[in-house]
Fold:
Amino acid sequence: MAFKEVVKAPSQREIANLESNYRAICKKYDSAKYQFIDAVSSEDFEVLPVTAYLELKELYIQKKKLYWKIHELKHPEDTATREAYRFLNSMDHNTCLDFLARQGLTTHDLIREIEKNPNYLDEVTA
Structure:
């Protein structure tokens, strides 16, 4: 008889620490974003180093990963939401809107369709 590994549920403290880190990264991201947007809108490219964009992108990636990690820990049974957003985020904005319009769905409708049928995306994109 083989034993199945049981994943330990995260403690409230672990989730609270991740949420605290998430809020800190959001503050850094927002600050960097507004500085970047201000420099671009005022065409002040002498002040704006190339590393500002790279830092902004890195903060965005960290923020996004941490958000989904927290979501997964708080809602382990909700795989449909993660799958829907992973699929939608793999496309550019206009392609995403076109896909949803062709299917006659909103993002929340797409999540419900995936909950009903986990193979929904495979079936409609095949």
About this structure: The chain is about 75% helix and 0% strand. The chain has a mean pLDDT of 91. Residues 103 and 124 are 8 Å apart (CA to CA).
